[in-house]
Model the fold of this input.
Amino acid sequence: MNQVDLKVKLRDTGKQQSKKYRADGLVPGVFYTKGSEPVSLLAEPLALRPIVYTAETKIVNLEIEGIDGIKECILKDIQFDPVSDKITHFDLYGFIRGQKMTVEVPVVLKGTSIGVREGGIIQHLIHKTKIQCLPKDLPNSIELNITNLKIGESILVRNITMEGIEFELPPDTAFVSVVAPRVSADKAAEK
Done:
């Protein structure tokens, strides 16, 4: 599991104050964890890049100015401005070592399937999935090797076994499948 350090400051709350922070080029956020009060944070946009603009799930070592100790957390939610695409808010969720947590991780396909080489079309049905695991077992992503996947075959949740990880999807849910290409109506009419 990749880790990244993030230094933030405490901030005042309220809509007007948040607007002022954004106008000053800063990003308001919240750190919360089970059994504790939320902590309002303020971060530099550049400091957030390694955890926002990535395809991997990363553990964040959060250092809050004025509060002792490093807090381990993950990025739970991120909001962007619809026009400028700038980060407008972030949520960090703290976890406790030894306790399971629910996390959304990306699903990455590896290889070129036999079915695609035979003319089939790959359908990547689920790009992110929620899993439950201990922090020590948290993967960067769920990697699926599709090399042996033939036309008409799929990789289902029940086909994947990863030590210490439980999927929050029904066992018959397909992550990826290879389907035969559609025959156009013109070609079908010729036959």
